[in-house]
Amino acid sequence: MSATAMPRLPDMRALAGLGIVALVAGLAVLSVVWEGSVGTPLAEPGTSHWLGTDPAGRDLVPALMGAASTTLPLALFGTIVCLFVGMPVGVALSCSGSAVGQAQHPVALLTPALLIGLVVSGLGASGYLTLLASIALPGFVLVAISTRDALAPLWRQDFVTSARLAGLGTLSAAQRHVLPRLLPRLAANACELLAAVVLIEVSLSFAGLGVRSPGTSLGLLLREGQQFVTVRPLLVIMPGVVVVMLVLGLLLAAAGLRGRGR
Question: Which of residues 186 and 233 earns the better pLDDT score?
Fold first, then answer.
């Protein structure tokens, strides 16, 4: 019984993780039609305002949803840019026979991203340009390395060599033998990268280097709520909960996809 249950665990983890992400994304989309009411600033939670209000009197629930509707598209756009630039470079490196190094987890992007953010913001760039530079510059390098490390061992497999000796070109061999084994791992890497990019946006906006007022994002909500944490701790707790849910959901999905590809 256990032998039949174990192979399904990766799929269940992926479904659970993607379900959490879909829930946050759905609430973010709902913010387009639900603006909430304005009440007394820093009101306590109640029937009219489930989580209370922020310093401007806005209902915290739609404020959280609106912040997520900014953080998620920004993170998704930054991830797509990294994948679009980095993956072709990684494929070229794998075909050239470059040595495979030690893999780095995407969370390692956080430190160089913060340093790049400090430099770019110090040059007078806008918050959105600072975010894009901080995500794209280290991100595409990591994507290129992870793509190379995923592809290089597959090119050396006997069945790929046999297919190429039988007359299949490089592209045909890749489509028939390499891509089916590679896609789950690349999807897992993309989920992990998206989780890291969310953390980068939250960190930079919290530090005042990313999204700034009158804009909104989860990092900006954390920044604005910290001065009221002693009287209204939900102003900090709830944005933190949304960030943790989003990141853990993406990492859970990545673990399930990577397990499926083994």
Answer: 233
B/e letters for 148-165, b = 16+ CB within 10 Å, e = fewer, are bbbbbebbeeeebeebbe
First and final CA of the chain: distance in angstroms? Answer: 21
Comparing 107 with 260, which gets the higher pLDDT?
A: 107
Contact 185, 14 (CB under 8 A): no
Tokens 């007359």 found at: 167
For residues 166-195, average pLDDT: 69
Residues 6+ apart with CB under 8 A from 239: 64, 67, 218, 221, 222, 225
> Where are the chain's structural domains?
63-260
What one-character-per-residue DSSP string does 83-125 give?
Answer: HHHHHHHHHHHHHTTPPP-----GGGGHHHHHHHHHHHHHTT-
pLDDT at 48: 78
Q: Are 231 and 42 in contact (CB under 8 A)?
A: yes
CATH class for domain 63-260?
mainly alpha
The half-sphere exposure of 100 on its side-chain side, counting CA atoms within 13 A, is: 15
